[in-house]
Amino acid sequence: MSDKTHLVDEITGHRRMRRNRKADWTRRMVQENRVTVDDLIWPIFIVPGENIVDPIKAMPGVYRLSVDKAVEAVKEAADLGIPAVAPFPDIEMNLRDATGSGILDPNNLINRFTSAVKKSVSNIGVISDVALDPFTSHGHDGILRDGVILNDETVDQVVKAAVLQADAGADIISPSEMMDGRIGAIRRGLDAAGHQDVGIMSYAAKFSSGFYGPYREAINTGGLLKGDKNTYYVSPANGTEALRDAALDVEEGADMLMVKPGLPYLDICWRVKEAFGLPTYAYQVSGEYSQIKAAAMQGWIDEERVMMETLLCFKRAGCDGILTYFAVDVAKKLAKA
């Protein structure tokens, strides 16, 4: 028999990477990461009123929903198998003030939404945020006085808000305001109120990013913001600082960790997962979503392919799940597969 060895065989030592790529079935057999419906958390925007489905111009395909319409949407998400939703309220301007006091109203918009979901949809979780920015007249995540965001007073307030949200039925509290000590304080507050079963998903590394713009339009805080959030969000330049933030949250009792934004910070996702081993999530934020949508609308990219590719990137980077505005679209695609 003639020797059919090729120069390539000699160069590679008879190891050819393409053997495992030769057919669809082999590619599926060796696939390292997969996106499933269990990986999806759906952020949803809530507005006061009834029968409201209000499109958000900066986020094509995303809507502000009144509680009744939001509950209908959550039922659909649950039927698709999405494990959890994360509500964000667009509060009436006349209810916003310098201290974000509206977050302490047991019947505020986010608590009404949570209570309604828990009464109507039994098989989906609610992950709620206690940051003050939807409730403040200045757009900051904490209490602002004399140009300074007050850490300790803000922590006192978000602890009270966390208890109220748990009382309304929230399954996980996910504080995003990045105040020092908030995770331990919230844990103690929840436990003292008898909410030992309510988890905490920490925004462990939330960066001072330019990718939040469409979100701020969605909850109408962009035009309110006085100054910036650099004194409490992490600088995009600082990876080690982000790990130190995450480490403190772990020590204080966080059950899960989140990195925000997502795709520009895949290295942080990987480092957080490797360092702490806790369930780790990424938030594919509004700017990431809108970039994909805008490019697809121009015909420059294949929206569905890029949507799925970005989610796979999060999985490859060690994430256990992703908060994404694509959640329902992805769940429908996976249901057809």
What does this structure look like?
With 337 residues, this protein is of the alpha/beta class. It has a single domain, classed as Aldolase class I (TIM Barrel, Alpha-Beta Barrel), CATH 3.20.20. The protein is 39% helix and 16% strand. It has helices spanning 7-12, 24-29, 67-79, 109-120, 151-168, 182-192, 213-218, 239-252, 266-276, 286-297, 303-316, 327-336; strands at residues 40-47, 53-55, 63-66, 84-89, 125-128, 143-145, 148-150, 172-173, 199-206, 256-260, 280-284, 321-324. Strand 10, helix 9 and strand 11 form a beta-alpha-beta unit. The N and C termini lie far apart (46 Å).
Keywords:
alpha/beta, single chain, 12 strands, globular, 337 residues, TIM Barrel
Strand content: 15-25%
What shape does the CA trace take?
globular
> The CATH topology, please?
TIM Barrel
Number of distinct helices: 12
Q: Would you state the CATH class?
A: Alpha Beta
When the domains are counted, the total is: 1
Mean pLDDT: 96
Structural class: alpha/beta
What helical percentage do the residues reach?
A: 25-40%
Named CATH architecture: Alpha-Beta Barrel
For CATH, the homologous superfamily is named as Aldolase class I
Strand segment count: 12
How are the SSEs ordered, and which strands pair?
Blueprint: H1 7-12, H2 24-29, E1 40-47, E2 53-55, E3 63-66, H3 67-79, E4 84-89, H4 109-120, E5 125-128, E6 143-145, E7 148-150, H5 151-168, E8 172-173, H6 182-192, E9 199-206, H7 213-218, H8 239-252, E10 256-260, H9 266-276, E11 280-284, H10 286-297, H11 303-316, E12 321-324, H12 327-336
Parallel strand pairs: 1-3, 1-4, 1-12, 4-5, 5-8, 8-9, 9-10, 10-11, 11-12
Antiparallel strand pairs: 2-3, 6-7
